[in-house]
What does this fold into?
Amino acid sequence: MNSILDLILRLDCWLLLAPLLPGIINKVKAWVAGRRGPPVLQLYYDLARLWKKGVVMSTLASPAFVILPAVTWVALLGAAMLMPLGPLGAGLTFRGDALLLLYLLALGRFCTAWAAMETGSAFEGMGTVREVSYAVLAEAAMIAAVLSLSVQSGSISLAVMLAPAMGASAVLLAAGLFIVLLAENCRVPFDDPNTHLELTMIHEAMVLDHSGPPLAAILHGASMKLLLFTVLLVQAVLPIGRLGPWAAGLVLAGGVLGVTVAVGLVESLLARFAFRRVPLLLTTAFLLCLFALLVAWKGGVP
Amino acid sequence: MNNANLNLLIGLAMGLNLLALGTSRLPALIRAMSVQGVILGVMPILMEGHPDWRVVLVALATIGGKGVLIPGLLRRAMRTVQIDRELQPLLGFVPSILLGAAGTIAALALTHLLPLLPEHAGTLLVPGALATVLTGFILLIGRTKAISQVCGYLILENGIYLFGLLLIKAMPLLVEAGVLLDLTVGVFILGIIVDRIQRAFDSLDTRKLTALHE
It folds into this structure.
């Protein structure tokens, strides 16, 4: 009984807090540019508005067009349940849940890509190709990061892996995971979430034809993914396991806020990269995570 | 204690290797090379518990030569010929950075197979030297602009210098000082040659030097 209550509270926490992050990022961007900016709760209003609208279906599209965004959303929610939240621990934990987390993220991406191809629009195909070709490199970096965490702690369970700090390689891992976070969530050096030009879009181009509740699920899923990666980054780098429960909770919340503000600052201060320069940056992220793995393996001194 | 600091410095030097391989801008390449030179110059002081004045002198000469003088000469050569990019490398930037990383990892993993003295087994000197030499080779082979190739040559020399630090007690630092002097003169002459290539061919692409014509 208690565990069910815990699970429901945890679900509420992820569902309700996730749309706050894009709001904070936009507020930081507006603040740097000297504008007032949209309210922090803007995404909540958008989601409520989209939820009330109907769905426009292309005659070409199969029912998968509506089902797949829901599958993506559920996969991301499942991944969120696996992610431990500092002192609270994870909703579900078992040996090897780190692998399931990676595969749930991949499943989410696969379903978004499939749904994008449903309408047969040229722009969506283009966006999908870009998204998937970046993902190949970003996933390699992500896997190297998870491997280095698991070598460091000698476990493949997320709750054990994320408790201790990385030690010497924390800086390498932090830089690598931050780049992965930006790439996976389509933030600025890779993709511009505010762009209105189909030729330069990546993630936005994939969801052009979605409308109403499925679009709301996609937007909410994207914000949950952002929160997921932020929590992962903070817990992988900071030694949260060594603090008391209250201090750990505060450090986690502060860390998430800090990373979100950092994403906003990156977005305001950096222009997006040309497409041909992106692989170099993602390869750098992969190498950073790989060297973190090397340091974890050799223990600093070979 | 000293070993940990030394390993940190060598780790930084290895990071700079990858930076040098990944950048397309010549000023960034020259900066990576000069910072690496400064890091290498600090190392002899760190390795000797109580450095005498000769070690300090050579360290200062290394820092001055590799960190200030040679980069200064290269920057001047770059300004005279007005280029700051390596646009068409023979080996792309992503492949070369991957190759450099693979070499670094191989050097780290395979060094314990070498018959090293026990006092050197705990340091990263040998893998650092191997990785730096390899980086120099990749830059020499994969780039077409004369200035990038010179940077590759200088990074190669940095790797040899790292090897030399293994013998710091046996080999007089005078040898290293002589090498440093040779290098400085070499770069000085190269600054002139680069200018001549630019005037004769309107480009710094060394591939053009292989074609004969009237």
